[in-house]
Amino acid sequence: MSGTWNVSDVTSDGADWLASAGTYPRSMLAYWEERPDAPVVLPCGTVFDVVSAPAMFGRRMLDRLWDEGPGSGPVAEFRGRMLLFAAPGTAQRLPSLLEWEEWGADGRQGGRAAAVPPLLCHGTGDAVTVPAPRGGARAARPDSRWLVAPDTRRPWLPGPEVLLWAAVRAARAAVRISIFPPAEQGAKVYDVSRRR
To answer: Are 91 and 49 within 8 A, CB to CB?
Structure first.
């Protein structure tokens, strides 16, 4: 699934799930009946949390989740950010896991997560704007769309450990790693690959 993502519409079961995050789910569904191309603001923390990543890094995370991991829950793009829907509680736990990884298990800064850009974690007390349930490429806002649309009343949502794994893998793929230390200034470098 890597590289190419098809824009999709939210199914009626997926809309029920999204609406269940709000205070008045039936009113939300009625609103979407009238305006299926309207993005809405939904609260986080009870039905889902959202991890917002810069678009390119978020796509790398998504590729890792699908190519090497368990897949993802719903995922949307909104105003240049990738919104990864996660299990409730992820927004509280993921920052501390990233901080621990950045320092490394041995206590030195520059661990595996040092190349992870700042991720915005939205949980209890936060709200996010989600794309319209319908519209795909026809959406009123071209910068707002579902990449993996909710399609069930109980979608699987990754937790903090899974998203940490994806972020570290995405960062590792983005950074060119060399097994050789950088050459000292003025040092002579010899090509020994032609030795007999």
So the answer is: yes
Ramachandran area for residue 80 (φ above 0: left; ψ -120 to 50: alpha; else beta) = left
**Within a domain: 47:** yes
What pTM value is reported for the model? 0.80
**How many structural domains are present in the chain?**
1
Whether 180 is in a domain gets the answer no
Sequence-ordered list of residues with C-beta below 8 angstroms from that of 136, at least 6 positions apart, any chain: 7, 8, 9, 145, 146
Q: 158's torsion region: left (phi>0), alpha (psi -120 to 50) or beta?
A: beta
Structure tokens of 123?
Answer: 């949980």
Range of the domain at 31: 12-174
Examine residue 59 and state whether it is found in any structural domain, yes or no.
Answer: yes
User: How confident is the chain (196 residues) per 10-residue block, as mean pLDDT?
Assistant: 60 95 94 91 97 96 94 94 97 93 57 77 96 67 85 96 94 62 51 45
